[in-house]
Amino acid sequence: MKFFIGQAVTGENIDELRVELGRVYKVLEDKGHSSYDTLRENQEKFEGNNTKREIMEHAFRKIDDSDVFFAIIRSDRKSEGLLMEIGYCLSNNKEILLAVKSDVKNTYLRELANRVIEYDNSDGLVKQLMEVDL
Hints:
Elements: E1 2-7, H1 14-30, E2 34-36, H2 43-48, H3 52-64, E3 68-73, H4 80-91, E4 95-101, H5 109-112, E5 115-119, H6 122-131
Parallel strand pairs: 1-2, 1-3, 3-4, 4-5
């Protein structure tokens, strides 16, 4: 299966995200899946040359090409882009797998996702992914 990984990026430590995502990519690939996310595509370069509308349209095309939208929620902080992507998935009946840190309380995304993984830290996220049937 193809996974589109959606997450808040603005305001996050990009280096830490890249390390965590590298581990997530490996788990998915070890299970025979492929994945896409904007950090893999060099988000900084992409955003510098495109309008927000073009960025979202690009994301929607990539979501259309994916089997599963995999949202990773690390904090209570809202991401407009991620919320638009999830809305797009809901309106197009795309499967949503949600990984949410257990201390995140201010979200109703758990109720909208098809499947939910709760985790405490990066190691916990990777462990949960290894154990879940994808």
